[in-house]
Predict the 3D structure of the following.
Amino acid sequence: MTYIKIAGRYIREYRSRSVGIVLSIALSVLLIVAIGSLAETARVLQVNDVRQNAGANHVTYIGLNKEQIDKVKQEESVKEAANSFSYDTWNGNNGLNVNVRAGEEKILYMLDTKIAEGRYPTAPDEIAVEKWVLDRLSLPAQLTQNIKVSLGENGEQEFKLVGIVKDRVHSQSHDLRDAFVAFDEQKLAGREDSVETAVEFKEGAGYKNEAMRLGKEIGIKDQEQIVLNEMLLSAMGELEAIDWNLVGVSLLLMIVGGMVVYSLYSISVLKRSQEYGMMRAVGGTRKQILAIILCEILIFYAAGAALGLFMGISATYCFKGTTMTDLFTEGTSRLDIIAISGFAVKLALLSSLAAILLAGSRGAVMANSVSPIEAINRSTQDRDIKLKGEDSLVERLMTITGKISYKNLRRNKKVLIFTVTAMVIGSTFFMTASFKEELNRRGRVTLESIGDKSPWCDFWLNISMDEPMKKGFTAEQLDEIREMPQVESMSSKQVLYSKLILDKEKQLNKSNGENYLKFMNERGFLPKFLGDFSWPGDTEDEVIVRNTVLGLPERDLQYLARTFKILQGEEIDTSRMKDEPLAVLYIPETKANGVPYDAKAKGKYAPVLNIKSGDKIRLTFPKEGYAAGMNNIELLAEQEKYGSSYQEKEFTVIGMVEELLYADGTAAGSRIAPYVLISENMFQELSGIDVQRVVTINLKENADDKDYELVKEKVQKLSQLFKGTVLADYYKYEIAEEKSAVTAGLLQSSIVIILFLISGLSIYNNINYSLISRIREHGIMKAVGLTKRQFRGMIRSEGLMHGTIAAFFSCIAALVIEAGIFVYRVYIFPVYVWPIHTNAKQFFIDWKSMLIVIVINLAIGYLATIGPGRAVDRMEITEAIRTVE
Amino acid sequence: MEILKTEALKKYYGKGVNLVKAVDGVDLSIAEGEFAAIAGSSGSGKTTLLHMMGGLDSPTEGKVYIDGRDIYAVNDESLTIFRRRKVGFVFQSYNLIPVLNVWENITMPIQFDLKRVDQEFVEEIMRTLNIFDKKNALPNQLSGGQQQRTAIARALVTRPSIVLADEPTGNLDSKTSQEVVNLLRHSVKKYHQTIVMITHDENLARMADRIVRIEDGKLVNKGGAPC
């Protein structure tokens, strides 16, 4: 009790330092809890998103019979189970297909949705549909209406709409259409062994193992009948994994905050070393002094941690409802829920405890290392000064006041190192974040300077690869939208899935090329039903490789020329492409292992094909493949069957484009396969096709929601012309992106502000102590003739020296890190993935952030001297001279 | 010729029953070239008197004239500059600046004045005080006697009108104390200085030209030649 009382008195006596220590702990805890919780929230939302996307079930058992279904339901580890089966396909009047699923009501839960209006179907002739699906089918969302449904296998049937299912955003954005009917015996007849049971296990179960165990228990022999929800399990695994980014930030804060606590507390202990000496002189043991110190730091810790937790949780809740880009994962989430991260709370409490224990132990060592006699005599710290008596060249150039400031900095090296380190951490974090932002901004500005707005379109239409190549939007159809007053620009591309005949020896780029073909054939991103990626040619020297041909209109040819000029510094006359068999090639780049975008692989990126400007390429395309009704998938997959009916055309390559600004969005038009860009004229001459398959639309800058709705209506109609056409709507997404960038910016700024605040506190405290501890010296100088003005000038120059050194090291540290970031982004792992581009090929110095850091450092250094300067100024000279430490 | 004069000088602390009269109406005059000692017991007010005489502490009442100038009639800035040029101080605890070497400590008042240091004169003082070989040493590398000699050199370097020494031997052994006071005395003669020294050591006081005694803040003996 006595220890607590003494500790409490010390806390009150050194009030401003106590406040400083509590505040440092609180700010560190606040930031760790807030960042950790926001990251946790983002991850929870990602899991929720995956749930929407892939379902809430951990596993789906396929082809179960009634007995097996019952066994699953009785299992104790099962939280929810829902049975369903695919009943039929509803062929809509406007060419859209809807998958009709017969299922128990819980299937909606598994699909992360619910009945929004009405109820779930129970009778055989009842149906429930999402509102957006009804919109797509041009049906009113009116309950109890009877809908005539044309089913693929069961013919025409009439259903009563009894429920409107809550829209699933993911399904809507991917155009995945479902309708739900009751799970009844009649419909099940003949499909008894094709029931799919989606299972969600209780929390805490090892989901993967549990799924396998249950599968075995209910008698599943074929492993293919057990379909794990890998996406969800993987997302949940991420949730449970240690967030190393957060650990990094915590460590950073622990260092900065810890240093502040350390220096503040050390000063307090130093100031009362005489009292500790007295205590020991009158019989106090080292352990008792340690107990007082321990009580004191634990009180600080309890107060700081409680305050920090409260502030951290409150701050996190302030973000509720906002949209933000996760600082670390670069994913965007709308924070509709807030999850306070237990891990972050534990980490914050532990790291701040570590910091304060460190400070406390240092204090204890200091307190116990002073002998009672030394303490009582208030032995000065002058004996510790280790400086050279002779002046250095720099010192010789200084005035006496400047020299005293400079020597005092050198005398208090520890203070200087602490101060500078604290400031360098905050400043470097700020500068590198600004640099990354500027790097991204420059990349985007460079891209924008090409003038082609289509990469930032509001609507994107892409005809499905299932549709015959001859199908597409006509000029008249597109003009109708192009001429709308709300539309600023429209761009369209012709698409052809073709094949390149390559000379294995000459045109495959050694191991890059060989491994690339191997990778693409084995596990490339092409779906299996499209067949292989490459085939042997007619001779042993030849290899046939898939590729996509884009036909570009005249305006796009001009943009292409500008792309070469701006991004690659090359002058290519693309206007010649209009009437000559000339092509621009895009060749994927890989490292020696042939895997695209493999940052971890060793070696440098290089094109997989060894083709240069001036080389000739042999392009083949099916002679009869354009006829309406020809199955595209079959055409692409069956090389043996259709290979001989392909015709060949030779093109001369006039340039290799490094950045593919637009592409066909289907699996057949994969971006990791080569692209051949030719003119619209040549495309038509080659294929006889004059329709467009990829269309991008940009609204006018000042377009509002009403304009957007008008254009959207027309675009949607256009999308319905061909089955499966993807209609991506980026208008709302762009708005959300902008908002999320603001929130992310706010969060980043908060980290910077808090880091600066803590560092500033450290600088202030250290300079303050440094000056206060030299009151006697200041008194002497004043006694022998130092005027107040000279004194102020002297201590300000000392503060500014701290600031200058901190600014200098901050800039050096930031420059080194920035150079590292630049080299990584530009040379080691150039990011080709849209939309993060690194087109800034030249290193630059972000002067703006550097200037801000210099000003902030100097300002903190300067401001830190004002308070103590005044305190010393106010003190009588005689009083100052009598002061010892 | 009178170099320092105080008129009804008072310094009171506190109020009412807590009123402490540290210095209570002191009238004192010091002639040029004089080596005066102010003697008194602990708490008699001698240090407070010395501080007021040197412009370090402002009086509650009364005046101090140095070279005929009322030092408290000017503002703080002017008083500091006046002190820098006209008064030299020697303190009991040496009060050197620990980060500056001996040379820098000595020349500090001149450098505060942004004036050129008369190297010959400084070196002469240092030789006189036998610290020239310690020119580049830091205070913590010196003995107590050497530190106090450095402080004396600093007090003499601006050729002040008066040197005020506050128990300059308080932290020294008797042999070194004798040495330091001899040096002070020698300096007075050599550099035609006026010195007022505070001491409670009767033996040292006797080395002065005149002893002024103070008790409970009042002068009890303005002194003549020491007995």
User: Anything to note?
Assistant: The beta strands of chain B are 2-13, 20-31, 35-39, 61-66, 69-70, 87-90, 162-166, 195-199, 210-215, 218-221. Chain B has seven helices and ten strands. The longest helix of chain B spans residues 174-191.
